[in-house]
Amino acid sequence: MHFIPLMQPDISEDDIAAVTSVLRSGMLVQGKNSEAFEQTIAAFLGCRHVVTVANGTASLHLALAALNIRHGHEVIVPAFSYPATANVVELVGATPVFVDIQLSDFNIDVSKIEQAITPKTKAIIPVHEFGVACEISKLMEISEKHNLFVVEDAACALGAKENGKHVGSFGGIGSFSLHPRKSITSGEGGFITTNDNALASKIRVLRNHGMKTENGKMIFEEAGFNYRLTDFQCALALSQFKRYNDIVKRKQEIAEIYLNGLASNTKLQLPATFNNRNHTWQTFHTIVSDSISRDVMIDKLRKKNIGTNYGAQCIPIQDFYFKKYNLDCAKLFPNAMHAYMNGIAFPMYNRLKDEEVKYIVQTVNELTGN
Ligand SMILES: *Cc1c(COP(=O)(O)O)cnc(C)c1O
After folding, report:
1. Which of 304, 324, 297, 262 is nearest to 94 (CA)?
2. Would you say the CB of residue 127 lies under 6 angstroms from ligand 1?
3. For 248-289, what is each residue's pLDDT tens digit?
4. Mutation pick for ligand 1 pocket among 60, 77, 82 (CB with most ligand atoms within 8 Å)
5. What is the pTM of this model?
6. Cα separations (Å) of 180 from 8, 148, 170, 297?
């Protein structure tokens, strides 16, 4: 078998044509594709405003800046995610307060949020990890009771829903990424969603150097960022989005081959599926039993031409956070630590062929003695 990477973007001839047409037009930034993408996604998600930004981290950073979250404030984040979720809290000078996850969906354990709230808490950033919604309605009840902002980190969950409602449309702000590891890509890229008109305007101003135009005059009303996305990237994202349903449908088929083929593997805990929450399969994430070394398994799979990797990180044990806060992660975040130490993500992208998935299943079963 040839090498099967963990992820491969799906770039079609139409995508390439969409990008080159913008390049030929000479309008490289802030052209019509940004607006078209924003309107298309707003209609898809059922959100009033969508604002394209440079990437998913810029999107979270901009969200916190627009909410005026700063030094002296605390923001609740799951202990298990991509570190960007907590990094942006540090970047605005606030303090991330970590809450453990549950192992069923690898998302924040909503029952543990209230005990983490203090008078300094301003916001919660729940993550919809691996393409499935967290228990967002329950979380919204808590945030409303305590008057906290919610910034949904939906970086890897475009199209995920709870009871038919899209992630990114529950909280005050939703944040998405268009990195090649996500379901559709613009290379680097991201976007923010909100239903709040004032927040949307502020986000647009902050995205563009803190500038607004009034009667054709430039007014710099904030010390802003340049977090704009180029128009050729928006053209790519828009072209990719046309295939969104096909991409997720194919990933669902792949997930079923994995789930059936690995169902009787006693060494692997497979990802759960839920009645009221669809899985968009950004990642196929499993947990290996303690009797197997996850890192040895990654090495052995690589030797068999299969690319796998960790799913996400236990953030408070990463160098920066450990040096700064020195938290007893095994005691405080046992599930995040277990997912971090034993988690393994298998190849998942729509161009994977059935034979490749079956080869992976067979190899994994052989290597784990099943
Ligand atoms: C990918 C990802 C990000 C970062 O997005 P970028 O576009 O790479 O900056 C943030 N949070 C989560 C949960 C992610 O999966």
Report:
1. 324
2. yes
3. 999 999 999 999 999 999 999 999 999 999 999 999 999 999
4. 82
5. 0.97
6. 8, 32, 25, 25
